[in-house]
């Protein structure tokens, strides 16, 4: 049984200003937003034997009572935010890191006080360097003071179920995660593998730090993960968000919805 949940935050358009503008495909016309990309945002929650695991944290939107949408979504899935034990950060761009903390009356608080926040050291240093407007340093200031930050380097293991690997590609110090619990192997590739279409219509993305590396890695992940039965988590997918391979008669693999 698949124990992973999409914590869907919505559909957005993003132009060169790097602002995320809500986009409703049923009401809004893409022609009114020339030059924009259209993406969806799906943080993921996974049940493991060591506790709840959160893969990236979305944009950090809140309701009128300053309650994180991410917290609402976790409760809607049947869980409690305070039971999250690990927050696995692929990288720290604002559409992935916004829900790491919550702000009320200008005061920032860590969003998951019982969790370890797993971040690559190089990504953390780059986030503070001012190299990109995609980073919100006021978020990281709160994390820095919390005592919950765990900086890792290269590849390794968090526990018997969770491993990480520096893969670069989207940012210089982007990382991917493998979560193996019971008989399931979940793979979270962050923005190196954000949509299933990028497996089968492989291309060099202009928004990547190293697009050629990302392109090659996507093929490597599918070549290894498809025959092994990995469950792929796609953060920006417009269709299949939690997918697994299914073998065809000719021996090749297609992607199907793992939740069905």
From TrEMBL:
Family annotation (InterPro entries): MBL_superfamily_lactonases (IPR051013), Metallo-B-lactamas (IPR001279), RibonucZ/Hydroxyglut_hydro (IPR036866)
SMART domains xref list: Lactamase_B
Record field: transmembrane: none
One Pfam entry name: Lactamase_B
Keyword annotations from UniProtKB, A to Z: Hydrolase, Metal-binding, Zinc
Gene Ontology MF term list: hydrolase activity; metal ion binding
Keyword Protein biosynthesis applies: no
Residue stretches making up the Metallo-beta-lactamase domain: 40-229
Family assignment from sequence similarity: Belongs to the metallo-beta-lactamase superfamily.
PANTHER family: QUORUM-QUENCHING LACTONASE YTNP-RELATED-RELATED
Protein's name according to its UniProt entry: MBL fold metallo-hydrolase
Organism of origin: Sphingobacterium paramultivorum
């Amino acid at each position: 049984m698949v124990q992973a949940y999409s914590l869907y935050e919505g559909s957005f358009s993003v132009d060169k200003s790097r602002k995320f503008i809500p986009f409703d495909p049923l009401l809004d016309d893409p022609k009114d937003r020339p030059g924009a990309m259209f993406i969806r945002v799906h943080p993921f929650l996974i049940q493991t034997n060591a506790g709840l695991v959160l893969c990236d944290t979305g944009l950090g939107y809140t309701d009128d009572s300053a309650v994180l949408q991410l917290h609402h979504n976790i409760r809607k899935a049947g869980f409690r935010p305070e039971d999250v034990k690990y927050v696995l950060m692929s990288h720290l761009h604002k559409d992935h890191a916004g829900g790491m903390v919550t702000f009320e009356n200008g005061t920032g608080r860590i969003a998951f006080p019982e969790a370890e926040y797993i971040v690559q050291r190089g990504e953390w240093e780059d986030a503070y360097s001012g190299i990109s407007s995609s980073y919100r340093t006021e978020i990281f200031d709160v994390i820095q003071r919390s005592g919950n930050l765990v900086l890792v380097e290269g590849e390794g293991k968090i526990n018997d179920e969770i491993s990480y690997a520096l893969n670069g590609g989207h940012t210089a110090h982007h990382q991917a995660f493998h979560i193996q619990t019971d008989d399931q192997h979940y793979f979270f590739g962050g923005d190196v593998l954000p949509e299933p279409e990028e497996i089968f219509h492989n291309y060099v993305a202009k928004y990547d730090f190293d697009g050629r590396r990302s392109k090659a890695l996507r093929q490597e992940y599918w070549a290894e993960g498809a025959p092994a039965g990995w469950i792929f988590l796609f953060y920006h997918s417009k269709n299949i968000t939690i997918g697994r391979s299914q073998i065809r008669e000719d021996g090749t693999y297609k992607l199907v919805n793992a939740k069905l």
